[in-house]
Amino acid sequence: MVVNAQTLFFPKNSYAYLSDDLVDLSVIYEPDINICVVKRQVDSALESFVGHLLMQKRDVSFVETLDPATFDFFRLIAHAGHLPGYREFCLDIARLCTAFGDLFDLKRIGLRLRTLDRPMCPRFHEDSVTCRLVCTYGGVGTQWLEDAYIERCKLGQASAGLKDEQSGLILDPEAIQTMPAYAVGLLKGNAWEGNEQHGAVHRSPQLTQAMPRRLLLTLDFG
C-alpha cells in the first residue's frame, strides 16, 4: 500500500480504495472492495494532445474488441495523428489495456473511446458487468458515491422518474465524488461473483462551460 492510499468503509461489503499507484488496482480482487481509483500524473505532451483534440469539432467514436498484444493502437484516432502528443496518447491507452488484461487474465478487451458533449448516463446506476475500467482524458471525470450515502432501493425504476437529487437516493449531496482527469477507475459490477446487486454506483458528470467536452475511455471484458 502506498503512503497516500486510503480505504473508505462501506457497510454491507463495500469499500472504495484510493491510491496514486497503478499497482494498487489489484485490490479490486478484495471481496469488500468495489471501487478503486488511482490518480495519475501524465506526460505534458499527452495533456497537450487531449486539449487540442477536445477543441476540434470532429467527434471521436472508436469501439472494438481487441487483443492488446497484437492491436495497432496508433490507429485509434487516425484523423488526429498529426497532433503533437498523439504517440504518447496511444502508448498510454496501450499501457492501460495491457494492465487491464494482465489484471484479469484477459486475451481480449472491449475498448470504447468517445468524445462526449453531454452526460451519457446522467443517473446514478450500477453496471451489469464483471468489472469496468474508466478513464476521462481531459474534461470532467466520472462521479461516484460511497455506499454510506446511498439508498440502493431508490436506484433505477424505483426512483419513480425523479432526479437523483430528488428521489432520496443521495443521502448527502456533498458526498458525491468525482474522478480527476486521467485517473484510472475500476468499477466492480453486478456480474462479479459475490457482488450481485451491489455494483459500484456511478454516473456521467454534468459538463461545464469551462469544460464542455470530455474524452472517455472504458475497458470491459472481451
General description of the model:
The chain is α+β, with helices and mostly antiparallel strands and 222 residues long. It has three helices and eleven strands; from the N terminus they run E-E-E-H-E-H-E-E-E-H-E-E-E-E. It has helices at residues 44-55, 86-104, 164-167, and strands at 6-10, 14-19, 33-38, 61-66, 109-116, 131-137, 143-144, 177-178, 184-188, 202-203, 214-221. An eight-stranded mixed sheet has the order 1-2-3-9-6-11-5-4. It has a three-stranded antiparallel sheet with strand order 8-7-10, with no helix packed on it.
Any low-confidence stretches, pLDDT <50, length ≥5?
6-11
Largest sheet: 8 strands, mixed
Please trace the helix and strand order, writing H or E for each element: EEEHEHEEEHEEEE
Secondary-structure class: alpha+beta
Radius of gyration: 17 Å
Shape: globular
